[in-house]
Amino acid sequence: MLTRSRAFAQSFLRTRARFSAGNTTRLESEASPPTDVDPRPRGSTPGAPSTPAASTPGAPSRPAVSTPGAASTLAARAPALVLAALIALYVVVFGTLTWMQQTNFGTFGFDMGIYDQGIWLLSRFKAPFDTVRGLNFFAHHVNVIALAFAPFYWLGAGPHFLYLVETIWMALGALPIWLLARDRLRSRWLPVGLAASYLLYPSLEWINWWHFHPDALIITPLLFAWWLATRGRWGWFSVAVAVALLCKEDAALAVAALGLALAIRGRRRVGALTFVAGAAWFLLATKVIIPVANGGSSPFYVKELFPGFGDSLSGIAINLVTHPGRFFSLVTQPDRLTYYRQLLVPVAFMPLAAIEVLLIGLPQAAVNSISGHSLTHDIRYHYSSIVIAAVFLATVESCARLGWKVAVRRLLVALILVTSVAANVVWSPSPIGRQYHSGIWAVAQPRHEVVRDALKLVPAGAGVSATYYLVPHLTHRVHIYEFPNPWVPTNWGANGENPPDPQTADYLVLDTALNGAQQGLYDRLVAPGGPFRIVFDVNGIVVARRVAPG
């Protein structure tokens, strides 16, 4: 009896050792369906390979004993290695494309120039009045995260750096998707498929293409916040939420919605605190920080983006409630329906099965849809950043919810991969996309050498008015304007306030082929006896130096 008990105990200990492989391994062979509500880490999976038995003392060594162990370790790490390779591939491809976009004059004053000048001013401890936009940097948006980039500007960083940071930051969003899917799907390889679909997502790649915007930086911390919440790691959850909030005031709406989603899933106390944090930051940003930075004026976009709904945030909210017909009329317009389709088709409409998670992006999607600015409901622009995070969180949760067995989960992920690749070909700016060769990516041209020669003639610190695509190459100075500013205020300030002083422009750097309706102004400025004298004129690229007031 004692021998049998001892044998049973040894067997139990060996089995327990096998089953304690760790929380990170999820095998596709697990039969039980995933739990999509429990926020606690799951236990390890039965069926993990056992540790090879030790060799008998004195017996000849057998090299074959160590080989399976090494192979098993490599196999266990393979999904993470493939994920790292996918992220690296994205960074190399889009890092190169965006680097060349800046080098080949494919960026503009709006918006690359706005952020580059603003961060440069902060790095030099100067008043952050952004002369590309005609606004204080923090009256434009509350992008506190920009302060973290200022030290890099001491080392010479600029637009190339901003593009690269955005590319890497966005690519790393594949990591929390993989971690969440690994927990939810209890699989080693299926999460890699969902991470790949994220990197293939057309809207993500378009946002990466369209200059630098702090909005894009919201995606990754928001994804991490949800995964950390499902793990109950509230300290790091708070950090992720804080990082998202510091990117832009828009993140506050997503954080408030995140709190509601957590409350719906049973985390009422944390959900309530998260909602309050999001709502409080939104009010602080829009009612205190922006007005103080802008001399008492409300955010510029209140009047600019929501015509017909009021000229204040409270007025817009009241009109949305009291005039629901107007709201539904806008959100069902054909261009809005196209917008929703292009957001959901790449993930096979899967997020609709986890609508409470999709709620995280609902406030931003609603704002985008009712806006009178067409770019807000276009997948190519940064306004959809928060929506992307919600779409992929809901996609993972939907796969877990609908995938009641392994075969179904495999089918769902395969379907998403197919639609992701197809959507990437049809709608994305990637090298496999149909639009790749349509001129969206700037390429080197012989004329660019002329432009670079012209830029070298502008002294550091001189005030400049330049053609829009030259502005991001001249932004490290106190006064840089998009022509015809500062003589004709254009896209300036919230309501045209604080008009620029023409005397602060010491140089003109213009592509005269793009003067358009401002050709008369240009002719007057460089005419004999006028305030500017041309010092460089090659192939229509002109540099003129101020010689008199005017």
Tell me what the structure shows:
The chain is mainly alpha-helical. The chain has two domains: 78-107 and 158-427, no CATH class; 447-546, no CATH class. The chain has helices spanning 2-19, 66-103, 109-123, 137-140, 150-154, 159-171, 174-185, 190-200, 202-209, 219-231, 234-247, 251-264, 268-293, 301-305, 313-322, 324-331, 334-344, 355-358, 362-370, 385-402, 406-427, 447-455, 519-526; strands at residues 129-130, 135-136, 464-466, 480-482, 507-511, 532-538, 541-546. Strands 4-3-5-7-6 form a five-stranded mixed beta sheet, covered by helices on one side. A two-stranded antiparallel sheet has the order 1-2. Strand 6 (532-538) and strand 7 form a beta hairpin. The radius of gyration is 28 Å and the shape is globular.
The fraction of residues assigned to DSSP E strands is 5-15%
Q: H/E element string?
A: HHHEEHHHHHHHHHHHHHHHHHHHEEEHEE
Largest sheet: 5 strands, mixed
Termini separation comes to 107 Å
Report the average pLDDT across residues. Answer: 89
Structural class comes to mainly alpha
Low-pLDDT runs? 1-9, 11-66
The main sheet orders its strands as 4-3-5-7-6
Global Rg = 28 Å
**How many β-strand runs?**
7
- What characteristic shape results from the CA principal axes? globular
Helix tally?
23
What count of domains describes the coordinates?
Answer: 2
* Helix fraction by DSSP (H/I, runs of at least 4): 40-55%
Quick overview of this protein structure:
With 550 residues, this protein is mainly alpha-helical. 54% of the residues lie in helices and 5% in strands. It is globular, with a radius of gyration of 28 Å.
